[in-house]
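Figure 2 data, in text form.
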Amino acid sequence: NYLVGGAGVQSFQMAIGAGIQAINGILFAVLLGLKKRLHIFLSAAFICLHPAFLDYYSFAKDHITFTFGDTLVILGILALGRTKNAALAVISATTCFLLSIAIYQPKIALVALLLLIYTVSGAINLSAREGVTSPPLLRRFLVVYCLPAVLSFSGAAILYALSARIVLITPDSSLTKINGLGEIFYQIARSF
């Protein structure tokens, strides 16, 4: 809890979060197969400066966790594309996606977007290598790219839903506590 309170902590967290996001930009460039330094720089700048990602910094305590959630998503995609063992690739990607969604539930959209980019780039690479579009090529595309993407995405979503259901129905859990009207007014009065 050293990074949560005290003077100057928010700026420190933002600096760490921005550093993690710069690393995410480089990982994103690796994911896209970019080689030139300018392209890698532009990729990192896009990830660091796009308003959707800059929004993370409006949550004072969550700079690091939100940016690390992005790291997990990118690592999951890289696991799908670079792990030779298909089962290990799906398990690794599912774990990364699950942890990212557990960090911040809207990360499910980032997972879906990057999986879409992964499958589309896979289709482009396959057709460029083979030079033709044929039923065997389509079958390989479905097995090599689409099936692992669907399995890892649905696995992460199902595991997250199950874990959330278990945590949220646990009796006497602080997560299941919902303030009543009296408690709401009491907290409002305390805040002023």
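Caption note: The first helix runs from residue 9 to 32.
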